[in-house]
Design goal:
The protein has no helices and 3 strands. It has 54 residues and is mainly β. The termini are close together. It comes from Malaciobacter mytili LMG 24559.
């Protein structure tokens, strides 16, 4: 699954891990995150993320 990186703080959202602290289950694609989801490290919105290839 496609990973996404925060353009502000470089946090990487990995769908295989999800975001358990925010109630996002492992396996949740970035596109299916709630619109009000925020970066767990710096608090910006999904609009500040872009696809990441490692």
């Amino acid at each position: 699954m496609q990973k996404y990186i925060c353009t502000v703080c470089d946090y990487i959202y990995d769908p295989s891990l999800g975001d358990p602290d925010s109630g996002i289950a492992p396996g949740t694609p970035f596109e299916e995150l709630p619109e009000d989801w925020e970066c767990p490290d710096c608090g910006v919105t999904k609009e500040d993320f872009e696809p990441f290839d490692d």
